[in-house]
Specification:
The complex is a heterodimer.
Chain A lengths: L1 E3 L4 E4 L4 E4 L5 E4 L9 E5 L1 H4 L21 E6 L6 E7 L9 E3 L1 H11 L21
Antiparallel strand pairs in A: 1-2, 2-3, 3-4, 5-6, 6-7
Chain B lengths: L1 H4 L6 H13 L8 H4 L9 H7 L5 H25 L3 H4 L3 E7 L4 E4 L5 H18 L12 E4 L11 E10 L2 E11 L28 E5 L2 E2 L1 H9 L4 H29 L1 H25 L3 E11 L4 E13 L2 E5 L16 H15 L15 E3 L18 H19 L21 E5 L5 E5 L33 H7 L2 E8 L17 E6 L5 E5 L23 E5 L3 H7 L8 H7 L6 E5 L2 E5 L5 E5 L14 H9 L5 H8 L12 H18 L1 E2 H8 L10 E5 L2 E8 L6 E4 L10 H22 L1
Parallel strand pairs in B: 9-22, 10-11
Antiparallel strand pairs in B: 1-2, 1-5, 3-4, 3-6, 4-5, 6-7, 8-9, 9-10, 12-13, 12-16, 14-15, 15-20, 16-19, 17-18, 17-20, 22-23, 23-24
Helix pairs in contact in B: 4-10, 5-9, 5-10, 7-11, 8-9, 9-10, 11-12
Classes of the chains: A alpha+beta, B alpha+beta.
Chain lengths: 133, 755
Amino acid sequence: MHANMTEYLRINLDTEMWECRNCDNELISARDNYKRGLLVHDRPPHEIHQPLLDPEKYEYTFCPDPSYMAILEFCCPYCGTMIEVEYTVPGHAPVHDMEPDIDDLKKKVAGWGDVPEKPQIPDVEIPRHVHQH
Amino acid sequence: MANVADAKNLSSEDKEILEKFLKANQLFHGPDQEIMNNHGLCPRSEEEERILSVEFDPHMANLCRGRILAALDESHTMVEQMGVAPGAKWGDIVTTIFTANGDMASTGTHGLVAFASVVGYPIRFINKYWVDDSSVGVHDGDAFIHNDSRYGNIHNTDQSMMMPVFWDGKLVCWVSSTIHEGENGAIEPGGMPSIAESKFDEGLKMCPFKVASNDELRRDIVTFLQNSVRDPKLQLADMKVKLHVAIRLRKRIHSIIEEFGVDSLIGTLRKSLEDTDAMVKERIKEIPNGTYRINTFLDSTLRENLLSKVPMRVTIKDGQMTWNFNGAAPQYTNRSINSVGASFKTCLATGLTLYVWPDLPKNQAAFAPIDVEFDENSLLNSSVDAPNAMSLLAIFRAFSLPALTLAKAQYCMPKRFTAISAPSYNQPATFVYGGLTQHSEITGNFCADINGNGTGGRENKDGEHALSPVFGYMADTGEMELAEEELPFVRLVSQKLAKDRVGFGKYRSGQGYEQIATVRQSSEFGFMSGQCGAKFSTAPGLFGGYSCPSYPLAKIKNINILETLAKNPEQFDFDMVELMNAQKIPGGKYSTQGAMNFEFCNEGEIYMICQGAGGGYGDVLDRAPEMVIKDIEDGLLSQETALRMYKVAFNPDNLVLDLEETENLRQEERQARIKRGIPYDEFVQSWVKDKPPEGVPYAGSWGDDDSLLYVNAPGVPPRSIQAGSEGVMLANPKDLRISSLEQEVAQLKQQLGAN
């Protein structure tokens, strides 16, 4: 029995472990903070949001200010999949963003029966009008 | 009053007399916190209880509901067609029906739910204070106006007209019409002042009062209101529009009563609310128990760079959901970005119904079962004394936070009610303008580009470009040609999608657009722009996706681009980045900044802003290479960024993909991530600090302790305060600048004297 918790995280409810959905490796106990099972990198903001305006000329350039903002990348230690990215203030503790109640999750998943790999969501394809000049 | 009335030595008769006297002689009917703190449904009225305690025909209710929705849609169209404010023309409006008690029972299929939800508060105020007041009263043919957030509103640029609907002499429901009017007489034109230091700088603050009797506006009051704003024509015209829309709505409601009976109407309104309430409770029960958190940060107060923490903690426990905002930045007692708690809550409700459960009926019950917790004196739950005209900075987070946290709570569920999505861009980036028009009229308002935000990447597809405001849908960005007929500004670049400005991810966000404006045919016209996010990205990514970039405002002063276009058109590029980097227009003073307080724009000077992108969804290395190439072909992505971010190999001349090399590059990048990554515990030990960094202006809790707020405000020593205890007064940035310059002058004098 398992529950897909995010695009890249799964909880194996039999072993009570967080797992990477990409490589199936175990990360850490499901009763712990999943981030403790990952690798973290403090990514300089300009490597993601490159300054589009000349930083020699301007203070504001489309690139966030690294003294105000840090980008923390959390990846799977086995396959390198980017599991979460957190934008925070330099030095602020990463947020413990997911703390599911494993016992209740087990009950809910058992009640749902077979959990489909893709959930049922309403989706309507709308034909797009494209301008052709 | 209660203490006196409870005095033990008074007989019950004396108590009654005393209470009656005090009620009749209350010094000031200020914002009523008993009303403002309750976002739940009122108890059933006697009428509702009588009607619903016996079997209520669901088919009849369905017919009634259909008629009500049709009436609301008709009235919405009336506002759009007749309204004068730019906000009315482009969809920042709503028409609404309420129960007699003031519960928001339905909007139409269009319209802004947040606008509708807040109007329940002033209606409850009118019911409580004016119905029995012999000097006011509530009668058939009356209409009331209001705009003050502290009595229930998003901010005081929005004005609502509320009308009671009577049948056989009894109040059976209320109807209302709300428009983002814009100009309201504030210290800056346009209705959204960024430099207001107190509520008295923010223009009209209308508590709910009567403006019409017998379906006719009181001209003396209308004149007073016109006399208080920069655009008297607008004030009169839209008051007429809202009144007559309310009259039409009332007529339709009367028709429903004539056809189905008054009990059917009252019962349908209440039943719809109760059914929605029950449905939401069932949905909450289905979500597994747990706690979900997010931290976000605003980077500006519109007057200075200052990080303000806006966190959210969602707790789901056995069918009860609690949304907690403890640890948010304190209120700024002399800045306009504070939000009233009730306003913030209605925007949370909107976030829930737009991005989590969009299938729910648009009524107040969709949010009623959720508990909300705030600190007092908080940026998100400010006191009645704090200014709040630009509450949008904080409030726009309320539209994003529910979906971000509930995405993590609900991803595991086998059935959801919409696709999970990273948030839309969530700042009010638009030109607010004011001054003298080419028709010699004074005006002030805002551009509807606030409705052109990019949406976030979704779990199954990319976000949409410039689709809608974060607070609604089916709103438009306006016809620039119409604006240029009335206003002395010209869009040199109106709505341009630019390169490399999305939230990157497996599914990228949609993009906002760039615009470049100038002024012509006026010597007294200017702009303001009231958004943050120039230093800290505002729209987070989700599940490995990145946020949107930060967005500067740019300008070129001391030029006349109209003359340049006539004489040297080659010096003008239809592109903000090119204009600013190449600096081809001689003599120009080129600069960038974050938020901009109102300033005059001389004819031909250039101002440039961007609507923003949403957040990206998922790992960039999972993006289909074909989608990357398509983005290059569509001009959304440079080849350099495609390689750098997505690790896609292709022939630069013909964009033919090299899938094998792409896979190699992506494998290399995954290995590089592992190599540069640090185990979490080790990282936290070395990276996390016990308080905010020195030199970075910051306000809010730090780390996991939400009871202590750190305040590192510019110009004053860092300190900490207990959450909820007090607000923070900030120094005037101009005073700080003067002080800094004075010190510089003193140093220079000393140096010169020494020489």
